Task: structure prediction
Amino acid sequence: MKRRSYVLSDTLTMLRRVILHMLRNPFVTILSTLATPILMLVMMYNLFGAVVQQADTMSSSTRYIDFLTPGLILITSIYGMGTAALRANADATQGIITRFRTMSIARASVLNGHVIGSSIGTLFSISVVIGLAFLTGFRPTADVGDWLTAGGLIVLFVTALTWLAVALGVSSSSPEATNSGLYLLFILPFLSNAFVPTDSMTPAVAWIAENQPFSPIIDTLRGLLLGTPIGDRGLMAVAWCVGFAAVGYVWAQAAYNRSSNG
Result:
């Protein structure tokens, strides 16, 4: 019991540290996560919304802003990884983790603080994007239960991605290496069904979009928020999130131990 209390107390201390860092640089923290999703909201909806809306691949009862918003939620989550990874990389490369190792603090608390703090920041950014989507015309049909389920999936997805981000940051030798590792995850949403239905894609691109990890999560969010069929996509979404979290957690712990010993 004392051990758990020790870890919890130190985790809260590390969490306060991460949040203070974010508050000291609010524009960097928020804009690095929000700039791209907001630009996409404005650009995709105003420039391409009418074209996509009139396409035969989209149901006439589905408005493009409703179709687009779940994809933007996912993209905001992914861009939130950037600041989490760079913050963890700074701790690893500037000797801060080594310094923490010499102090009487729970080792797990350093990574826990990074993950919880960065997840809170990303969830705040997601709430801003959803609010802007409502102002633009987003009108979901979800009831309270659907919103709670969608919120749970978003929290699970953000937490899983943040573990991956922290793992990448701690294991990378520099900010440039960290950004290179993030590149694939930044690109994958553009090869998903975030912006257009897969029916409008060429067969090769449609196959990639249907079989990559982000599309089932987007489909599940659309189903929960808009009432569209989910089928087995919900189980696939949860499985991908749990898989990301497990890989990120194990990788982060191993990278942290190497960094500490180095």
DSSP finds ten helices and no strands in the chain. The radius of gyration is 19 Å. The CA atoms of residues 171 and 258 lie 8 Å apart.
